[in-house]
Amino acid sequence: MLKRPTAGESDDDLLQQEQELMARGEFQPSAKLISVNKRKTEEPVSPKSSDTGAATPRSKFAQDRAAKKKKEGIVDNTVLTEVVSQKEKVPVLGRIVERVVPAGHSLQEWHPTPSPHGFPKAQRLQNLKGTVSNSGPGTKKKSIYLQNLEKKGLIVKEECFKSVPISSEGSPVTAHASQDPRLSALGKQSCVITGDGIQQNKSEMDKIHQQNIGKLASMTHEERMKEKQELFSNLTSEQITLLQSFRQRKEMAQKDSASRASDKKSSDQSNLAVDNEKKTAQSTPMECEDLQRSEEGRPSSSDAPSSSEPMHEGDSVDVKTRSVKFSSDVEMKEVADNEENLELELPIPPSEARKWLHMDKVDMEKLQWMTNMPKPKPLKDSEGFVARFNFEGDILPYDADVSYREGLHHHGEEPGRAGYTLDELFILIRSQVLQQRHLGLRTLANILRNAKEGLYDTCVNPSVVQLTVEAGAVLLLRFALDDSSHLVYSEAVRGLYYLIASEPDEQCLALAQPWLPAGLEPGISSDIHASEKIRQELDQEEAELKDFEIIKLDIIRALVRMDTHIRLRYDGDVGCSDVCLLSATGWYLLEIIKPGPETVINIMGIFLRMVRHSLTAAWTLIRTPRLISTIMTNFLPHNLSPLLTGETVDSMTSVYGIPLRHALRLLTILATKGRQLAAVLVNTHNIMSHVLTYVSLEPSEVSIPLQEALALSQEAYRMWAVLLTYGLSKSQEAVASFYPLLVKQLVFYRDKVSVNEETDKNKFNYDVGAHMIAALTAAVNVAATHSLLENRMKLNQGTVIGADGKAEVLVPPELTWDDLKDLPQLVETCLTKWLAQLTRSNEATFSALRLIGSCCNFLEAYYCKWKDQTSYSGDVHNKKIQHLHNNIISPILISPYFKTLIASLPSHSSLISDLVPGTERDPNNLGSAGCVTFGGEVVPVLRPSSPHPMLLPITNLLVSLHTLHPALNAHALCELLDSDEISVYLKKVCQSSHQLSSQWLTRIETYFICNLLQLAALKGCSRRQLYHETAMCMMACVHKGDEHIIKELLTNVICAKEFISDLTEMSTHVGDLSLNNYEPLKSPAITQPVLSPLQLTESICQSLKSIERELIRSLVSKREYDASVVLKNGIPFIINGVTISQTESPLVLDSYWSLNPIKYVFKVSQRPPQPQEQKAAGHSSDLSTPEDILTVTRCLQMAYLTLKHRKTTIHTTTTTTWMYHLSLVFLVACDMFLDACISSNLQGCVVELLGSEGYSKLDPSSTIEGFTSFTDWYRNMLEQFISVSYGDSTFALFLLIPLQQYWSVDFRMLLWGDKSDALQFFRLTVEQVDQFIPLQQFMEPAEQDEGMIIKYRSAIGSGAVSAARTPFLHRVATHHTSLYLQRQADKQRNSA
């Protein structure tokens, strides 16, 4: 007896026991497994089963496998013998379908026989036993279904064909045809019946044909002719011709087939018998008859189409041309006149194809797909075509010569063209085949990636992203995330990332840090979310909307609502039924599945895009259970010991346990959204400990590649700077604890890093140093508040307003000013070294300029905050500033390298560039930062050779230094401001269209130009008018978050007398003014307006301070101004976020900024007054207030200054919009236009706008804000004119503008018809109107509308207009009326 192995035995003992076991020979196992109702292997057929029916035939593969197993002695036991039933097996039909119950059948007639079994016993088909006879090798056994049909007599057996005589055409000869030669001429097959609707059944077609022949045989010749004439009388000539053509084509086809048969008879004789035998054995019952006819009656296989080439719907009887249909739109025709040519084109002949396994029935149509591909249809001139993409997402040319081996050709539309359309890719994505879904998703992701890079902008319209979104790509990708295959959900994640996010945008935004002012980050949302009013409505109605409806409004919002951020953590290998369980138990994709590196990075990108969308989405992500902890545990590990193994990340298949800069960037952007979010990361997730780990990371000690290690340190410093921006306590403590390390790093940069040597090698050193110094700058801002908060705490004075509305006393920060006393000297030394290197090398990289810019920002913050400290000493402060300016900054300003940077400004200017914003390709429900312009170019300010990373910080430093120390030597600075390079640059800025002014990164250039303007205001310049015009242009380019710039421009430049000195000198050149002879229009008020340019200009110069105050108060709200000042100065205890949310307009003002206060006053006047407000005011709301009159007056003065003396700044505006803004003066209140100052400046603006043929540039089709249409605006103006105008001439002049003949007749009909009461108040004379608008504009062309002529005659006849009271309107009406009467008289004379 054999014993079991024990624990103490060695491998030799086990091998010896195995030999003993094998030596005992065969033995019977304790249990035996057999296969039931599966393929049989070596088990013999039981004798009991032989009488139950025919045994199941084995395939060739099964026979070979059984023989192989029998030869090798393998026994396949899969089922326990004890549980196998011994009942005899009965063959039954495997596929069960629902029985069709005829109509009217009643179940009451059914009386089933009771059965003692639990289920009715399957009926045996013993009567079919032995009915199958094998006619030879290779003959296929008939199915049970076919045997049953033969038994019931529903089909004819093969033997019946032998008794039917066959004609020469291969069809049975009927008695009718043999008796009447006329009927024999009709043939044995129908020429008209094609078999449509009966699946081209040959036997049915012949049966119908024989029935028709029988009917004709029973009729006499006269009856046939009579029926023929009656049939022809009911058919058109085209139908008759068509029917006759059927027989002609068939006869020609028979002749051609006969000629080909004679040529091929000898070569095909040997193969015909074998082929027909195979066809007979494998054909269905409906094909048997045709095959038998081919065998016995046809001379060769080419006389008629064989059963292997069945006729399809739409195929013609003519075999000269054969149609192969690929779709409803594309049809390929193959010339069949010479079948030898076709066979030569095939890679293998049909006879060879029949020898292949399972290819004995050759499909010629499929073989034709193996021939040369058809050429695409030629395109007409400038004709568009559907874009087709390869698997890399590239658009293929229309006639691209692509090899079929690329797998880009298919059986869809346009089979001759390679590639897949978007519709075809969507079909692949919905496929049930895993490989097709994976291929479709991967290709779609590549297409979206290329689209975000702008590769399709100039060749696809509308944009590819818009098309994919409208086609339902969002839901398609979202559902693909639920797939269990990693091939599918990984590509779905990648596709979703490229759809909603933009990798170029993120790279550009990262490059703009840390030298972007205040370190701001953009919020990126849809147009719907950007509108506060619509967003509030959506918040209220979102619960009632479905997911696809939310997608149409806002994709990111819909994805958050569909819990996409949660699904990205689902276990993809678990069934759909476990999704709810997964949501409850917290098994997530990032935790359980642990996908590959690319998928993890894409998931981080999706989360980052959601965070940028809104504060609500950011809170949703951070509140998701275990999401942040999972990211920090797996991708921001605190323990870096696994990286000390020496294995590089490039060779790893998983990034779990590896610190990822993408994850750290996600948390950094999350922290920029708000103070509370940053506090959660610090206090709950202890992010600072991870940051310090990566800051102190030594790249040489870990296996991370140097580039990745430095990039990780760069992101860690960026996170540290953001946390210091809020003044969070743990970030302050980290500065104190890591202070020696920071000093050591600065010493390294001072001694080892150069900006003109080994620039490529030091690229990442530059980037890390720039972010490190930016973090130190934030630390300086925190330390600067210590003395302030300490003093206020001692006095128990509140600093910030809390949630309860009371001022809270803040605890001073732990970081003090003296803690950072060593840093300024080190940074200043580094800056001195690097600027000196630039003056010698004349070359620096983008990253090196970022490093220098960070040093400038640090020194600016330090010297600005030093004056607020208790240790401040004026003499020491001024000496250090003077040393910095004279010895460090001034030399670089006069260096050739700096002049080269200034000369390169026009080529790196977003304001001068004529590029179209990249947001044009974005759907309205998605949005992007638009850093890649339309056409694929990066915004000019961020090009690799851009000078802005250095110019912006150094001008910031210069502004601060000259503000703190006005006595600094400004020789080098003035030389810079008066240089030709700056002059050329500013002129181009003023003359450009500013197409990229709303792009986020354009704020860099706007800030830089405003610094130049402030320096010119501080130190003076010779080109004051140019700087004044530039300042007025910059007012419309200021972004949200920089509102303080507006006040600086108005105070220092626009409303400064030094910059409008050219206006004050006008008094000595009065004779040069062209408007001296203009007479002002009369007003019903006591004080009449003046239209003298001299007087208007003098009034402006005297009111500059008042204009400044009113514009500052009206253009920017105090809350927005204070928030921007806090961000600019970096006050940590007040800053609540460094992200600027997207709004309807990213700019603070538009090009009509001088009249914006009037628009605001008009909107306020349109609101229904509250009872409390009306009571407090003490007067009617229809009357204007003194404050409103003053505001409107100052706005009109600034508008007149712009239109009269600074016309170069309004080239991007339209006359129509200017006139609309000015017309609001009449609608604001019932008496405002009667003020003399307002009327004077209003007339002056109108003169400037309508001059130089401005009256002909008005566009009546433009939209007007606040009104549904231009007609609606005109109606409101007429109603106001009738009510309160008192015949004011200026008001009447505005209403005459739409009466010009090139405007629509609807405006004239409105005045002369519905609002004819206003006619009596138009007291303008022809001379008064002509000095603004030529009279010819109202006279030509002649009025053609008869209804308008009737209105003219009615007004003249009723006395509504007269030469004495309304001379101008009377002149116009009589002119058009007389011309009309003259035309009528000429017509009557000509007709007579």
From TrEMBL:
All copies of domain RPAP1 C-terminal, residue ranges: 387-451
Subcellular location: Nucleus
The RPAP1 N-terminal domain, residue ranges: 207-245
RPAP1/MINIYO-like TPR repeats domain boundaries: 1179-1388
GO-annotated biological processes: transcription by RNA polymerase II
Major subcellular location class: nucleus
Cited Pfam families: RPAP1_C (PF08620), RPAP1_N (PF08621), TPR_RPAP1 (PF25766)
Source taxon at top rank: Eukaryota
Basic and acidic residues bias (residue ranges): 248-267, 310-320
Swiss-Prot/TrEMBL keywords: Nucleus, Transcription
Residues covered by region (Disordered): 23-70, 246-320
InterPro entries assigned to the protein according to its UniProt record, in alphabetical order: ARM-type_fold, RPAP1/Rba50, RPAP1_C, RPAP1_N, TPR_RPAP1/MINIYO-like
Biased composition (Low complexity): 299-309
Family: Belongs to the RPAP1 family.
Stated name of the protein: RNA polymerase II-associated protein 1-like
Source organism per UniProt: Homarus americanus
Gene from which this protein is expressed: Rpap1-L
